[in-house]
Amino acid sequence: MAETMVVRMDLGPCAVCGRPAFTVYGGGTVVLADQAPLCGNCVRRIRFLYPVSQRMQRDMWITDDALVKLNTEEVREVMKTAPDRLENLRDANDGCDAVFRVDQVQTEKTGLFRIPVLRLKGYPLYGRFNMGEDAVLIHEGTAYPVHLDDVAGGSLLSRAGEAGYECTLKIPAKGIPASPGDTVVKTGRQEKL
Amino acid sequence: MNRTFACTACGRTVREDDGETAYLKDDLPLCRECAAKIRILYPRSFTWQSTYTESSDGFDAGSDERTVWVDPLADMTMEEYREALPAAESVRERMRAELGGGKAYFRVDDNKRRLKNAGKGRIVPSDYTVSGTVILGSFTAEDTIRVHRRGKTLTVKADSAERIIKGLVPKPSEFLDEGCHGILVFKEDVPFIYPGDILEICGQEETV
Question: What confidence tens digit (pLDDT) does each residue in A142-158 have?
């Protein structure tokens, strides 16, 4: 006689919104210090304040996440202040829609007669960078318009860079200088604000 | 074969397989309009479910992982549904006092750009989408959307709206009602909408 087992693949209701918090298929759930799960949608709202970082330890990559040290009450408090803190970040960056901080620059040669590609590794401070979008690279006070050929590593299911997760932007290197410490910004429709 | 039922609350005819019909305890069907009256208190949510079948010999006879929608109405009786109606109305009044006088309010869960396959292994970006939940009221895709940013207001308009009813595949819809998971599709870029934002929807005549 065949026996069927049905198991729900979530960690229970989210501590803040009550929706099922699942980790599979890009769920992005984080387990807080008091063992309560925080679903991916709630994490996304405050991730720009608690970026994930990785470090090498004994030939293994260790992920450091400051969010897991908070408990539910602290997360609720952070969520109340997060919109204001996001507005402060926007004001500090001249109202740009998204800002990316460059930590590392690599040049990739793609062929004999082809334009090399710059790989800018770093963190989006806030906002989202998607493949195929236009942005502006600010290098030593000068703005260079760039086209994002590809975005890798920031999001599991889409080619985009989310705030708080390390990702790599690929841009054509023709006449564009870049160095660590530069910023890539998306200005969007600021003139209408 | 599509069976039809009469809604337990209003008597309207509903189809079995339209994905919008809610079922109370004892499989009493409830049409979408009647279910939407208390969705503000009992929203649907989805999760993943794993099914594993073991044969009599102890071998794996098949496994499956799929999304399932969790509907809190399935545990309610008709009496509890009737008792929830005034409670939902009071919550609605309180939220309207908190949020303002907009037609509807939409909480953003995620903003992303869709990708489409352009053939020959190329993936190109497509529409900009904002997914989330309608937390108050209902609206159509033609309505104007207001984004409030520290004293400034930005007005945008969605090109279409999609509802998520079954699974995770959204379907185009003319309207999004209270408590429903939906996606707003924009032809233009809307990177100024962030996860956690509450969008105010105003009617077409209130366009700024």
Answer: 999 999 988 987 665 67
